[in-house]
Design goal:
The chain starts with a helix and ends with a helix. The chain has 85 residues and is an all-alpha fold. The chain is elongated, with a radius of gyration of 14 Å. The chain has three helices and no strands. The chain has helices at 2-27, 30-55, 62-84. Helices cover 88% and strands 0% of the residues.
Length: 85
């Protein structure tokens, strides 16, 4: 059951990223672009979680997952600060 939840979380993040980027292409609001990049990074992080727990259980990828999640969140924070100016 846990693997299905991890995959659904990855697909949800990917869908959100796709919708945000599509909306950015229609409106050209830069905050949508940064949010789309953040969700794309979170989808990659969720993919790493699936790979870590189900495909390669012997290899610890937690530091890679955290680095990707931190980078994705940093992109969103950067976008929020950039749009503030």
């Amino acid at each position: 059951m846990g693997s299905a939840i991890y995959i659904l979380c990855m697909l949800t993040s990917l869908a959100c990223a796709g919708l945000l980027v599509r909306s950015y292409l229609a409106t050209h609001h830069r905050l949508l672009f940064w949010s789309g990049l953040c969700f794309a990074g979170l989808a990659i992080s969720n993919l790493m979680l699936v790979l870590d727990l189900m495909v390669f259980p012997d290899i610890d990828m937690s530091s890679w997952r955290l680095a990707i999640s931190t980078g994705a969140t940093a992109l969103l924070v950067f976008g929020l600060i950039w749009e503030e100016k």
